[in-house]
Structure formats: C-alpha cells, structure tokens
Amino acid sequence: MALGVPSTGEAGRLSDLEPWSGEPPRDEFFWLSQINKATFVVNTRLGLLDRSKVPAWCRALKRVIARAAKPGSPRPRMYVRYEPLLVAEAGIEVTLMHAGRSSQDMHATFQRAMIRDETLALMKALNRVRAALLRLCDENRSTIVPCYTNGVAAQPDSLAHAWLGHLEGFRRDFDSLREFWARLNLSPMGTTVLNGTPWPLDRRAMASYLGFDGIVDNAYDAGQISAVDVPVEAGLKLAGPLLHVTQFIQDVMTQYAQPRPWILVTSTYASSAMPQKRNPGSLIDVRRDANEVLGRVSSILFRAHDLAPGMYDVKDEQLNRTILADAARVLEAFAGVLGLLRVNAERALEELNLDWTASQNIADVMMQRFGIPFREGHRFASELVTYARQRSLTPLTLSYSEAKAVYEGMVEKEGLAGIPKEFPFGEKDFRETLDPRAIVEGRRTEGGPQAPELERLSKGARERLQADEAWTGGVESKLQAAESRLEKDFTALCA
To answer: From CA 176, how far away is CA 483, in angstroms rounded?
Structure first.
C-alpha cells in the first residue's frame, strides 16, 4: 500500500511523474483534459469562443494529451503547469478558453471526480464481499455453531443466520456510500473562486459532460466548504466496512485457537519451528491491512482540523485517493479470503455439545411450558451447569436422573413455593431442550434462525444485493456514456 506523494502545498507537488503502464491513469491530468474538452464544447456552443479558431485549439489539446499518454511523460497535476503545454502547442490566444475558470473550481472538480472513481470501485468491491458472504450463508443454513458474547460461548445459532447478520452490516455500509454519492456527484465547475464570474457559463451542461448529476449550488461552498467536506466524509465512510471486516475476521479467529477449529481457511503458512502449526495468514493479512487503512482515516480529520476556508491541506487528492483505493483493495482481498473458508459442521456441533450453551433454553422452556418464573428457571439452569462442570459432565453425558435431583434438591432446600416440586420434564423433552439443533429450529422470533425466517432473510439479502449491483452498473454506464458523448462532441469540434 502506498502513502501519498509528498506535497509542497498550494504550489503543487514535488513531481508530476507517477509510475504507470498500460492505459494512462485517470489522474489529475486526465480530468484537467476532460474539463478542457468540455470547456471547448460548451463555451463554443454558447458563443463565448471564436468558432473559427476552436478546431485548431482542440487539435492542439489532442496533441498535448497524446504526448502525456506515453509512459514517463510529464502529466501535470495543476492547471498552472498544464496550461503552458497547451500554449506551446496553440499559442497564447488559446488562453481565451480560461474565461470564467480558475484553478479553484477546476481542482475542486477533479478532486470530486477522482474520489468518485474510487468510491464507485469501493462500492463494487463491497458488493463482491456481500456476494461471497451470501454464498457462504447459502452453503451453511443447516450448520449449527456456537456464537459468542463477551468472548464466551453463549448460544447455538445457525451459521447462516449469524453471517447474514454480518451481511446486514455490509449492506448498511453500501447504503451509506450511496447516500454519500448523492452529495459527492455534484460539479463545482463554473463557480470560479468565491462568487462566480461575469461570464454567462452553462454550469449544468458542463456538469453533464463530466458525468455529474448536478451542480454544487452555492459558489462559495463549491470551493471552500464542500471541497473539505467531501474528502472528510469519504474517509469516514471507510470506517463501517473496514470495521465490519475486522469484526468478521475476529469472530472466525475466536474459534481458531481450538485444537480442532470448525472454520478453517485453506490458505495458510507453516510455522518455521512448530511443525503442527498452520497459521491463517490470509485472514491476518486482511485484518492488518484493514486496520492500517483505518489508522490513516484519522489523518484526513487532522489535515482538515483548524483550517480557514479554502486551505489546501485536506484537498490533497493523492492522499485521499490512495486511502480509498487501499480500502477497496482490502475489500477485494477479503472477498477472496471468504472463498477460502471451509466449515466443518460436525465439529461445530461437537463443540456445542461440549459446553452448556443450551442453558438459557432450559429457563425459557420452563417458563413457557410450565409457568415457572424465568428467574427461578435461570437459577436452576445455573446450578445445573455448576454441578455438571464440577464433574466434567456435558449436555450429552449428564444423566436425566442427575438433572432431576438437582432441580428437586434446589426446590426443597430453598423452600420454593408456587413451582412444581417434582422435575417437570420427561427425559425425552429434557434431552430435546439441550439439543442445539432443536433450539435453533424452535425459535419463533421474527428475524430468527428458524428455517422459514432464514429463507426470508436470505431472499431479502439477495434481492438487495441484486438491486445494489444494478445500481452500480447503472452509474458506471451513465459515467461511460457521459465520457463517450464528450469525446464525440469534442472530436466533431476538432474537424
């Protein structure tokens, strides 16, 4: 993961070269070029530029872009460094195109566009995580595992139900990014510096050609306030998905300390000293990288702290873009690791039957079937667990007669009135009360793990994912269409 390139502040970066190969990057130079193309198209249409001179200027712009497309060529990141390249090709008269423009609104525009690219990539990666996790849920609807509270085994649950719960967190992360998109995808172009320009610009046409859904309404806000808000909000949006990644991994790692874990990752590395060890390095790597990016999110807040409006610190698009891109890479890696998880359902059930995660169900059933107050049922279950653990007994090895004796001894010792003196369970019913699978299937709560609700929850998760994948696909198509339309109309001007 790369940290941002050192910056000299408002004067620009130390270097305009960034390693790349293949297609030219969608960097500051790319977006300054797009803004220049859109300026030629829109302002010529408005009559703000001499139509007889524009074709030569457009061809000069094409030459500047082509030269910068060669690996190793300068790709200026600031307009004050870009413009001399255009002047060298077309002469000083080409600067007539700068009517009603400023580095302030141009930079605010490409900063949003670059964050927009990274945000869309982040959302697509998040959907890949959701799809991988949903596949695991479908494969493990009948798998019963121990779930934990306060780091201690608490109750049995369907693994699919628990992981659908994790999936809901990632779904909310997507919803949050989609809400952010509505604020992000607005164009500052045409606001110039602080209060607009006397030139009659068509801001909405410019926004449309650059793929924006609308404009930042207030000219002062465009470059001074929202230009800070956008990178700060983009960084804060990373907290949700990255925390959910680390929570999921830690949930899996909780059981990984067992001699025989019931969830394994198939990509491991061996210890150099201990032959028996198979370390879940892929899980650990993703957790490390997620936490590393989370740590850098705080840098955005500190760069924004105590700034007068218009200061450059937090607008550093290289730092902001790198953090977003690294977060997307973490999600991509996590989606890959999810595909490496293997679940041993028999071993999970064995683990449940080694401990007393069914004890709350005893109290619930005693109250539901026999009218015994929950606190009395809870007291019996607690005493039963204490008795069993002192004798190394499990739910499978504790005899019915011992459970009966514990209950009846408690009632007699405490002189409890209003509850049955004799143990109310038959042996078959008592065994079923301790059966993890029967406990899960016996749930009646809306949103619970019982089969009908599990089917409903899975269906809802799948439908929401499909809708969100369609949304990202639609957004991507719309952005591509805007770029194609701009290229077509710009090319026509060059003729």
So the answer is: 26
Closest CA to 217 of 225, 255, 281: 225
Query: What pTM was computed for the model?
Result: 0.91
Contacts of 21 (CB under 8 A, 6+ apart): 71
Single-letter code of the amino acid located at 113? A
Tokens of 202: 């068509």
Of 52, 54, 27, which is closest to residue 39 (Cα–Cα)?
A: 54
Spell out a b/e string for 49-85, using b for 16 or more CB atoms within 10 Å of the CB, else e.
beeebbeebbebbbebbeebeeeeeebbbbbebbbeb
Provide Rg for the chain, Cα atoms. 31
Distance CA 316, CA 77 (A): 11
Task: Quickly list DSSP for 294-336.
Answer: HHHHHHHHHHHTTPPTT-SGGG-HHHHHHHHHHHHHHHHHHHH
Residue of 488, 479, 484 whose CA lies nearest to 114: 479
Q: How far is CA 28 from CA 63, 89, 107, 212, 230, in A?
A: 17, 20, 8, 17, 17
State pLDDT tens for residues 306-339: 988 888 889 888 899 999 999 999 999 999 999 9
Pairing between β-strand 278-279 and β-strand 341-343 as defined by DSSP bridges: unpaired
| Sole residue written with tokens 């005899």 | 399
DSSP state of 224: I
- Confidence band for 227, pLDDT divided at 50, 70 and 90: very high
Taking residue 225's Cβ as centre, other Cβ atoms within 10 Å add up to 14
Using CA atoms, how far residue 302 sits from 250, 314, 325, 342, in Å, is 29, 8, 20, 42
Beta bridge partners of 141: none
Give 48-81 pLDDT, tens digit per residue.
Answer: 999 999 999 999 999 999 999 998 899 999 999 9
Torsion over CA: 86, 87, 93, 98 (sign): positive
Picking from 431, 430, 432, 450, the residue whose alpha carbon sits closest to that of residue 440 is: 450
The dihedral over CA atoms of 470, 290, 108, 121, expressed in degrees to the nearest 10, equals -20
218, HSE (Cβ side, Cα atoms, 13 Å): 6
| Residue 473 half-sphere exposure toward CB, CA atoms < 13 A | 7
Residue pointed to by tokens 């009517």: 99
